[in-house]
Amino acid sequence: MDNKHQVATFAGGCFWCMVKPFDEQPGIISVLSGYTGGTVENPTYQQVCSDTTGHYEAVQITYDPDIYPYEKLLELFWQQIDPTDPGGQFYDRGQSYQTAIFYHNEIQKELAENSKQSLEESGRFSKPIVTPILPAKTFYPAEEYHQHYYKKNRAHYQSYHVGSGRAGFIERHWGENDAK
């Protein structure tokens, strides 16, 4: 990675649903599905879903901050999740599906904390915001069949996005947007 590009890492439940919203923005170089935050090296999907490795399903985004700054990434991240749910996201339950922002430097940490505080103060949600802000750990790419799932399996992705409750939640809390 060159000095112009930076990396952001977000856990927002099922990583299939976290790729498309970021992938379609200007200045996004790549969005990779994977696992982070755990204790097992090179975990498999089955290991992570067993909730025994400590990993989160996450996306790692390489971006050009001059085109799409970290603040905008944070804003889009919050619009993809239920930040008040400590037990997972929508249909998916368990530690591996919990939300988190993984910061890569002190600037990201400060910006993430400020955005979380702003969201809490906005009154948009009646329950407390529980998404933690954690230091980035090793990111392990998920198996190839998980990468850009929304492109490879359009119909299944769309039915999952709607059927899991994510699409309806986003619409209720954020209105019409491009997060579908």
Automatic annotation (TrEMBL):
Which key words tag this protein in UniProt?
Answer: Oxidoreductase
EC number(s) per entry:
1.8.4.11
Q: InterPro entries, from UniProt?
A: Met_Sox_Rdtase_MsrA_dom, Met_Sox_Rdtase_MsrA_sf
Q: Which GO terms describe its molecular function?
A: L-methionine:thioredoxin-disulfide S-oxidoreductase activity; peptide-methionine (S)-S-oxide reductase activity
Q: Which residues form the Peptide methionine sulphoxide reductase MsrA domain?
A: 8-158
Q: Which SUPFAM superfamilies match?
A: Peptide methionine sulfoxide reductase
According to UniProt, the reaction catalysed is: L-methionyl-[protein] + [thioredoxin]-disulfide + H2O = L-methionyl-(S)-S-oxide-[protein] + [thioredoxin]-dithiol; [thioredoxin]-disulfide + L-methionine + H2O = L-methionine (S)-S-oxide + [thioredoxin]-dithiol
Q: What class of enzyme is it?
A: oxidoreductase
Q: Where is the active site?
A: C14
Coiled-coil residue spans = none
Q: Which PANTHER family match?
A: PEPTIDE METHIONINE SULFOXIDE REDUCTASE (PTHR43774), PEPTIDE METHIONINE SULFOXIDE REDUCTASE MSRA 2 (PTHR43774:SF1)
**Its biological purpose:** Has an important function as a repair enzyme for proteins that have been inactivated by oxidation. Catalyzes the reversible oxidation-reduction of methionine sulfoxide in proteins to methionine.
Q: Which family does it belong to?
A: Belongs to the MsrA Met sulfoxide reductase family.
What's the protein here called? Answer: Peptide methionine sulfoxide reductase MsrA
Origin organism is: Neobacillus bataviensis
Gene assigned in the entry = msrA
